[in-house]
Amino acid sequence: MDIRSAFETHRYWNTQRQVFSREAKVDQARLGSELQRLRADSESLVHDLKNEGIAVVESYWPEEKCRQGRAEIDRLIASYPDAVHRHSGGSDKRMFGVESVSPLLAEFHDDPFLRGVGERLGGLALYNFATLGARIDATAENNGSGDGWHRDAHAFQYKSILYLSDVTEENGPFEFLPASHKQWRAVFDTARGDLPAAPKSRYEPAAVDRMVERFRLDRRQYAARAGTLLLVNTSGIHRGRPLQSGCRYALTNYFYHPIQIGESRIQQFSPMMPGTAERVRADLPE
Predict the structure, then answer these.
(1) Would you give the DSSP letter of residue 194?
(2) Is residue 231 within 8 Å of residue 117, measured between CB atoms?
(3) Which of 7, 155, 165, 231 is the least crowded, having the fewest Cβ atoms under 10 Å away?
(4) Residue of 149, 134, 151 whose CA lies nearest to 242
């Protein structure tokens, strides 16, 4: 048992929560009513997010709209090659800020329900930094979307993910360890699961497999039809499963607290689609 690393993780999560606490709080009663008007199941989704770290909505986009979305992803890859981030031997092609160059994909970025759920979850204001449009193909080099098991951050990180293609066990379903977004689990996983202490956030596959087997943890994969929406607290441990065949298209909204947005965040994701950095800079407080 690694008590020192567990203590470091506990302390880091507390520090992050203190930083976030300086952010503007939302009116939970008003927001709850607005979300209920948009979707009758909104409170159930927030409940799942709080307890499991993930919630699923089927048929959020219709199949024809998803087909158009896939065509848009391919168009943007061809049209803006210098803005394409390539990972896993080039199999994972990522474009940040697709909302700036595609009215269709901007509909996902601008969807008020998606941000509202995240604000209802955390109780604090959120800013949609950019929408990622991604295509990942099955190659010998691919490690899955996100390049393996990881947390996006510690303490809180919210994303909305939309499958634009059918996702099976073979072409890279999202995988998640339920409840791993909770602080006590992060501490436990560090102490007993041989995971590195925070702020480190990437984990070897063998370490995750060993921890899951040793403690009989739930490891879920989310194979689903095109149009399925995943709402996720990605401070939980997750990955896109490595592809065995085919390809996978998806959109992902990257939500942050406004206090986390600045020039360093812009540089972190650069190069982005034309107009994205300019929009973010214009939104920064003077």
Answers:
(1) -
(2) yes
(3) 7
(4) 149
| Type of residue numbered 264 | S
Start-to-end Cα distance in the chain: 48
Query: Is residue 275 left, alpha or beta, with left meaning phi > 0 and alpha meaning psi from -120 to 50?
Result: left
Position 164 confidence tier, pLDDT thresholds 50, 70, 90: very high
pLDDT in tens, 196-241: 999 999 999 999 999 999 999 999 999 999 999 999 999 999 999 9
Closest alpha carbon to 100 in 125, 132, 68? 132
Helices of type H across 193-224 = 205-215
Read off the pLDDT of each residue in 12-35 and give the average, rounded to a whole number. Answer: 94
Query: Tokens in use for 215?
Result: 């403690």
Helix (H/G/I), strand (E/B), else coil: 181: coil
Q: What residues have CB less than 8 Å from 163, skipping those under 6 apart?
A: 66, 224, 225, 226, 227, 228, 229, 230, 248, 249, 250
pLDDT of residue 205: 93
